Each structure stands twice: as structure tokens, then as C-alpha cells.
Here is the input.
Amino acid sequence: MLVNVHSAAIYEIDAYPVNIEVNIDKGIGYHLVGLPDKAVMESSYRISAALENSGLKMPHKKIIINMAPADLRKEGSAYDLPIALGILAASGQIDGERLQDFWILGELSLNGDLRPVRGALPVALKAKEEGYRGVILPAANRNEAAIVDGIEVYGLENIRQVIDLLEGNEHFEPFRLDMEKLFFDELDRFEHDFADVKGQESVKRALEIAAAGGHNVLMVGPPGSGKTMLAKRIPGILPPMTLDEALETTKIHSVAGTLRAERGIVTQRPFRAPHHTISDVALVGGGSYPQPGEISLAHNGVLFLDELPEFKRSVLEVLRQPLEDRQVTISRAKFTVTYPAGFMLIASMNPSPSGYFNDPHSPMRSSPAEMQRYLSKISGPLLDRIDLQIEVQPVPFDKLSDDRRGESSKVIRQRVIAARKVQTERYRDYPGIHYNAQLSSKLIRKFCAVDQTSLQLLKNAMDRLNLSARAYDRILKVARTIADLAGEENIRPEHIAEAIQYRSLDRKGWFE
Here is the structure.
């Protein structure tokens, strides 16, 4: 007897239909075809034990299972449940008529319980798009699948409950999720608040400008000056995610298996801080079975690289294309995948290997050769993609001991949101351009025009401070953001003057 069961495969961050055909005939043997990986091949052992321990039987006949399309690689343990149900229906142990209404996925434990799987959200989205009634999956995945409106989601505990649902032995209500409450309740909850930061007013101002324009930032300062503390608070001043951004971010985390089961949707902008020992594959994604890397997990959020020169140069260089294109394409002999990578880069570093460069009170010194070796890991092309370079100084005692709270993240965020709205309106006719940091050289000439006074100020700064030529466009983009925060339509000399001070590390000699 031949039975079809509908499931799905994940490619990049989307789901694709997989039709599992199960045929049981005279003879003996278990044959699984359709380009399965090792985890799928091992499913026969899990399925056999799960059926026996659930009071069901594994047929002692010739079982042929085809996973179509045969040229699409099938990975992971999510096919345990659909294969098991196909075997039960083909052997006549259950009625397979209602199987055609659902997409089914789930890993089986040996006692028949359902374990969570990756990619439930893209599967639910695709099942709705294909016109199916609903999805059946493990209870731990029901929150993320229930984000999709207009499709029935059944999150069940074990294979027995699935059989009761399909045969009508027990009534199960589709799982519902109050998306509006879940999404909006979390928007203004911050684990870290700028109100707790003592001093550092100039740095907080620079980070507000960065958030308003989507600019990348490099903070340079001695150990203990607060670089990491400040970086952790940046997601709280970025504009709240839209529902489309939340869904796209949740899909990435669902495919990567990093989604918290109790939440179901990512409502706050991600903050990813990989260790400096990370490999280039772990950063950009890929592997034998492609998975999103840290830069994709930071999509629509912040990627924080602490101690930037400690990262391998090869790792840092792979950031160049994603920073420019907001996506990363990984090409291998057998596959090519593209993952979103629209993140805001925040990097920090010590000014020297000892950490106390230019500090007259420190007994630790670094030789010119050590300084050169330390800074040479940061290439010019990578530095070229960082708009703001900020020197972070230690906070004096009188500031640390001050009990007064600073300006809260919520207040700063309101100014950032207002500036972003101006930019969204300004660039509405330019697809893919949403904020100032994305401006090309051509658009800079159009939207960052300056008067003669500002132009002379910029010329004097480049001559006197020995700024490199690449600083020119960066200063104009940052000045455009400062003008937007001030509610000014045109860039004024004071905006240029403030933008210039955020290129202090671009002077000749620092990174050469």
C-alpha cells in the first residue's frame, strides 16, 4: 500500500515542500531514498523503538520510503514523525485520509515523545502559502509556528496524541498566540539602560548618532573605560523592530536552532558578541550542512566585536562584503546559499597591546613593533566601513560616585526614531536605502550638500589633522545624521564640526 505524507526541507531560511512516499509490500527490508543525511538514515531505529513503546507495530515487511524531490538534500531529525505516520498508514494501523491536510514534522524519542526541531516558522509560512489546512509539530515548537495567522497549528506531546488527532479519537484545539500582546509588550523592555551609565556623555552622544543613522562604530579606550558596557546598551536605543523585521529575524534564529521555545518570536533587536577565537565559517555561516553564522544571527540588530585586533585577520576580512551588501553568499562545490546580514557593527579595542597607550601613569609600554603588529590586523578596507571612531576615556571618581541617573534609553530612543522617520521619508524612492549609513557616493553628493563655510571647515580639518581621503564621505554621512537629529533640513557648519571629531583615529599613522 502506498501513502503520501507532507513535510518540508529547509534551504537558506525558507522551507520547501517534501513529499514522503511510503510503500509497504511483500518481502523484507527497510529502504530509505531521496538524498537523506546520516540523521535521516538513522531514523529507522528511533521510529521502530518509538512505535513499539507506544503500543504500535513496526511492520516486518518490505518498506520503501522515497523523499521527493530526490535531488534536494534532506537533513536533520524532523522527518521521524512523518515517516512513522506514513508507515502506520501504509500498514493499515491508522487511517491516513487526514494526513493530506497537514504538513508534519518532529523528532521521535524512543518512548514516542516529540522533541523540538529547527525551522518551524518557515515551515508554517510555506504550508500556509501552499494552501494546507495546518501543521502538526512538537509542543515545544508551537509558539513560533503559531506566529503565522490563518493556519491551524497543533503542537503535541507524543505520537499517540498525533494519531488521536488524525483519527478523531480526541478533540484538540489549534494553538493560538496573542501576537499583538506578545510583540508589543516586549518592545520597551531593556535589560541594559543608558540611565545606569556614569559619565561618558560624549560617547553616549556618538552612539546616539550611530543608532540614528545606522552607522558602524569603533570604540578605542583602555581596559575598564566602559566600552563593553556601552555597547550592550545600543539595542535599547535602536528603533523598535517592525513586525516584518521580527518575522525575518525569527526565521533566521528558528533555522539556526537558537530560538527560545517559550517566546516563539524575536521581539527585541539581537545583540551578538562572538569571542575573538571564532572561525570565519562560524562568523559568516556555512559548514557541511549550511547554517547561519553570527553575522546573520545579528541581522536587524548589533554585532559586537570586543578586542577587535585579537580576531584573526582572515575572520575580519570576511566582514567586508556583508557590511556592504547586507547579505552573505556562501559558495561551496555542492551548494550556494545566501543569508541576510543587515547588522550594525560595534567594535572595541585597546589603544595598544598593553592597553594603556598615551597613559603617563601606566608603567606598561609597547614598542613600535608591537604596536604595528597589534594594529595591522585591522585593514584599511575594513576601517573604511566604520563611520564613527570614538576615543573612550576612563570615568573620573566624581562621576562614578554621583548618585544621579543619566538620560534613559527610552528618551534617547525617541530622538533616534524621529531621525529615522526623516530618513525613511527622504529615501522612499530609493529601494534598499533606509538610513544614512547606506548612502552611496552618488547619493552623498545629492543629499549631503554643504555650503562654502562647511566645505572650507572640512578642507581645513583634513589638512590640519592629516585625515585620510576615505574620511571625507564618512564625515558627510555622519553630519547628515547629526542634522537629522537636530531637525535641520540642511547640513550646517556645526554639524560638520561635530562629525569631524568622530574621525580622530583616522589620522595618518594610526592604522598604517
